[in-house]
Amino acid sequence: MPKKTTVLLLNLGTPKSPNVSDVRSYLFEFLNDRRVIDIPWLLRKILVNLIIVPFRAKESSKIYKKLWTKQGSPLMIYGEKVKELLQAELQENFKVELAMRYQQPSMNKVLEKIRKDIPEKLIILPMYPHYASSTTGSTLEKTMEIIKTWEVIPEIKFVKQFFDHDGFLNTIVDKAQKYDLNKFDHFVFSYHGLPVRQINKVHPDRNCLDCKCHEQYDRSTDYFCYRATCFETSRLLAKKLNIPKEKYTVAFQSRLNKNWLEPFSDKIVTEQAKNGSKNLLIFSPAFVADCLETTVEIGIEYRELFKKNGGEKLVLVESLNDHPKWIQCLKDLVINS
């Protein structure tokens, strides 16, 4: 008889609404995470609670209003759809749940529901393709903090990343093939940025900026290096899409200061326009669902930046959202856990 198995899908989270109070609540919880802003506790409290949140909430609210739909946050909408579709694929031998690292549905409430159900096996699947301490690490840490208090602890399997899974890659390829790739002058694979110091913590014996992972991926040393896996994802996708090396750039967006991973996506977009590129196609492989960073930052802000500097057409390849191949990818990750 199959084991009674629960699958917990996890994503970063979203404000309840684009209203200032809800955005403030989300930013407060998110930015106070020690893995997100990894500086001493007191400095983080002062920076977040007295400077960032009070001054940023109102402006962030305006940006979230550009993202919001009549149904709500795309991240939540697609999260619920994926949960339902995956449940239909896995059928009665599995029970699929969804929680967010920050805000609702909260990990505490969803994991309490799972605890009461007493599964024999629990599969934890954060929906971040690439491991990073501030996303996957934080999510798994929170999960373990909650589960360690349970009287009955089931068999637990963690899916820590899936950046090189064929199902994940093929879903992006399928999304891209709706466009005529021959019409684009250049391609950008844009990933969420991270402070360089966070990457260095993964391999403290060597400096991130001295690594050659942008040229070659070594699983034995680079498996948990965010920068390395982003470059490897881009190489794998370029190969599947027959994009030559000289026609694409790997870049990092959403930076807060100059000490983040380079090159910066907005600068690459500007440079491509100034250098004569008229048509630019951008991929966002770090995000499995439409969100602020894809729909607004790339789809609106970068498009305006590209045109301002002489470009004509910037196209964003849509996120995986509820694509059938993405559901099959998740099913395979679950079955093989």
UniProtKB/TrEMBL annotation:
One of its GO terms (biological process) is heme biosynthetic process. It holds the Pfam family Ferrochelatase. Keywords: Cytoplasm, Heme biosynthesis, Iron, Lyase, Metal-binding, Porphyrin biosynthesis. It comes from the Bacteria. GO terms for cellular component: cytoplasm. The keyword Amino-acid biosynthesis does not apply. Its EC number is 4.98.1.1. Fe(2+) binds at residues 192, 293. It is found in: Cytoplasm. It catalyses: heme b + 2 H(+) = protoporphyrin IX + Fe(2+); Fe-coproporphyrin III + 2 H(+) = coproporphyrin III + Fe(2+). One of its GO terms (molecular function) is metal ion binding. Pathway: Porphyrin-containing compound metabolism; protoheme biosynthesis; protoheme from protoporphyrin-IX: step 1/1. The keyword Lyase applies. Its main location: cytoplasm. Belongs to the ferrochelatase family. Catalyzes the ferrous insertion into protoporphyrin IX. This is Ferrochelatase. The lineage of its organism: Bacteria, Pseudomonadati, Bacteroidota, Bacteroidia, Marinilabiliales. The gene is hemH.
